[in-house]
Amino acid sequence: MTPPQDATAQPPKYPADVGASMMLPKQRASPAASLASLPFRRSNPSLSKLFESTTSASTSRPGSGTATPTAAALPGSVFSPAPRAGGTGTGTPSSLPPGVSDEHRTLIQRAFVPHIAVLADAQTEELVRGKGIEGGLLQLLRPFGEAVPGKVTVRDSIGASKSWDDFGVRFLAVDDAYPDLRVDTTAGPRTSTSSTRRTRRAGGDVAHIEELVDRHLQHSEFNHQDPVSDYLTQGNVAPQTETSSSPFHTLYLRRLLSGLPVVPHETFSHPVAGIIAISSRNPHPIEELRKLYNRQHDGDLRFPQWVENDFLRYYVLIHDEETGDIAKSNQTFDSMKRHFGLHCHLLRLKSHPTIPSDDDSVRVPTCDWMSASEELAEIQKRETADDITDPTPYLPDSDVSSLRTFIRELVTQSIIPNMERSVATWNEQILSRRRGLSGRFMSLSKRWTPFGTSRNSSSSSTASSNSNYDSLQGFYRPDAPEAIMRRLADYCFMLRDWKLALSTYDILRTDFQNDKAWRHYAGAAEMAALSALMAPTPLSSKSRSENIDAWIEAASYSYTDRQRSAAPYYALRTLVLSFELLRLRGASAADDAARWATRILETGLVGAVGHALITERISACYSIRSGIGAYKLGGRKRKAAFWAVLAAEHWWRLEKSLQAEKCLDSALRLYNVHVESQPGGKINARLSFENMQVFVDELRQQILSLRLSHQGYDAERDDEDGLQSPEVEEATETLDTSPRLHRKSLIGAAVPSIETGPLSPALERSDDKTDPRGEGFE
C-alpha cells in the first residue's frame, strides 16, 4: 500500500556539526501495516471529507504554520509610510501588522449571526427525507444559510449603509433550546427518554471540542508521506513559508463558536424569525399553518419562557415539481399571502432522490458551523459503516438554485429589514430614555433605594423590589426593559453596528451589576470588550487599559469565580476572542494579548490539546512585537521562541510529532538559528545558551523517534531482540580505485617514442602465410 502523496511530510532537520551519530532504528514493519490499528481508515474517502478543513492546510508542509513569527516590518514608501513602532496608540483592524491575517476577526463576524427557527409539517419532512436528507427541512436549509448568495446591505443606527459578502444565518429547531429533552413534533409532550435522544446540535462543550481537534490531529499525523526518503535526502528541502495560525487552532475556534447554546443571559441564539413550512400534498394547508403557529407560540413547541416568542413568522409552501399541480399550488400560495401577509414564499423542489451520476446533480455542501458533538457523531458513523463511499446526498441543480434564491429573499427582504426596524424602535423608545437625565436617576434609585425589601423576605434576598431580575430562576422576563436592551445590543452586534452595540452593553453592564445578575453582567462586559475591539476605530493604550482590560477581567472573573454563575465555556470564549482581537491591534497590544492567553492556561479552562494550541498562540502574540531600531529595542522574539519551544515539548508529550517539529522549527527561526550553505560545507549557528541548545537537540531527537515510530519503526523492539542498529555516519568513500589514480605526471618529461604498429586488420593476422589466390584474390 503506497502512502498518499497529498500529505508530504517535512524531513527532520539536524545540526550539521553534531559529533554524535544519529541512530536510525530498523524497520520492523511497513508503514502501511502500522496503519491497520489506527482509528482512521485512510482508504475511506467519505471519512477524508470530514478532515478537509485541516488536512489541506496541515499536511502540506509549506502551508502548515503554527505560531510562526510574522515578517519583519518593511520600510514604508512615500505613498504608504511605515507606522511608528514606538507609538502609544493601538492600530485598527484595517491596518494589520505585516504578516498578520484577519481570518479570526472574519470568523467572529460570521459566528454571531441571526438564528431562525424551523418548523414543518409531516408531509414536508417526508418529502425532504425522500430526497436523502435524514435531518428533514432543517438539515436541508442549514448549509445554504451559512453564506447568503451575493452581497447583503445593512443600515446602521445613523442610516449609513454597508454591504457585506460574508453574511449568513443559522437555522435551529425548538428542541435545540432543550438539549436534554426530545421534542415529538407529531403529537405528545416533551420527553426525556435517553433512547430517543438524538445528537446535540447545540455546542458549548469544551471536552467535545478537545476530542474533535484531537481526532483531526491524529488523522493529520498518520496521513502523510513516509519520511525515510526525506531523512536520507534531508539537504534537498523546499523552503517553508509562514502563515498566521495553525489550521487546528482555527478549527478549535470555529467549533468554540458553533452551535451557540440557547441561554437566558444572551440572545444571539434566540430566534429572530421562524419558518413555518407546509407541503403542497397537505389537504388543508391554511388550517395546518394556523395549527403549527399555535403550537409554536403557546403550545408544546414553545421556546423557553426567557425567549421572546413574538418574533417574525415566515410561511413557506413547498411544491412538489414531479407529482404536484402548480396551478393548485399557486392558488394556495395566494391564499397564504391573503391570510398571513407578504412574508411568504413558494419553494419548488423535486421529490425523487438524485444520484451522483445524474447530469444536473450537485453535492450538498457540508455544514461549516456544526457543533463538535455533531461532527464527532458523524465521524463515528462513517468509521463504523461498511460502505466507504461518501454518504453526502446530492440535489438537482434546480433545487439548489431554488434554495439559494429562497435564502437570499428571506434574509434581504424579511430578516434584515425587520431587525433594522426593531433596532430603531427600541433605540427610540427605551435606550434614548436611559441615556437621558431621567434614566440616570432611575439607575441611581435602583442602586441606593432599599425600599420594599426585607431581609426576612422569602422572595429575593439580593435584588430590590424595583428590579426586574428573578434571582431564583436567573433570568429577566422577555418584556423587561433590560431584556429588550440586551436584544437591541445583540441585534446591533449581529448587524455589525459596533458603536451602538458598545454603548448599549455599557449601560446594561451597570444595570446587571446593580441587580446582582452576575452572569448577565459577565455577558454584557464580554460583549462590550468585543464590540470595542471589533470596531474599526483606533484605540489608545489608556483606553485599552482602563476600559477593555477592565471589561475582560470582569467577564472572566464573573464567569468563573462568582457563586451560582460559573460558566467555564463562556470564560474561555471571552479570553480566546479577546486575545485574538488584541493581537490584530499591533505591537503595542501584543503583551496584553499574551497576558490574557496565559490566563487561559493558569485557570485550566482547556484540556491537553487546547493547552498546546494556546501555547502556540502566545508565541504568535509575542512574535508580532519585533522591536525598534537596529537593536530591536522592546522586541519579544526571545519570548516568542521560548513559548514555541514549550509548545513543541507539549506536542511531543501528546505524541503529535508533526506539530512538535513545526513549533521547534518556528522557535529556531525566532532564535535566528538555521543551517546555511557555505562554499566549504554546512555551518550550523548554535544558540547562545548551551543548556538550551542541549535541550533543543534532545527534543529534536525525541521528535524524530516519535515520527519514525508512527511510520512503523521501533528502536526499543530492536534492542529487545538483540539487534544492533546501524550508525549513520559521514565517511569519505573512494570512487575510483584503478591504478590510474596514482599515475605520474608527464609534464616536463621526455616524450617517449611511439611505435607504429600495423594499421590494417590484415596485418594483425597470425604468422601463417596465406596465399591470396587461395582466397579468391588475384
TrEMBL record:
An example Gene Ontology CC term for this record: TRAPPIII protein complex
Database matches in Pfam families: TRAPPC-Trs85 (PF12739)
Polar residues: bias regions: 43-61
Region (Disordered) location: 1-100, 184-203, 715-778
Top-level taxonomic group: Eukaryota
Residue spans of biased composition, Acidic residues class: 716-733
Biased composition (Basic and acidic residues): 764-778
Low complexity: compositionally biased ranges: 29-39, 62-99
Protein name: ER-golgi trafficking TRAPP I complex 85 kDa subunit-domain-containing protein
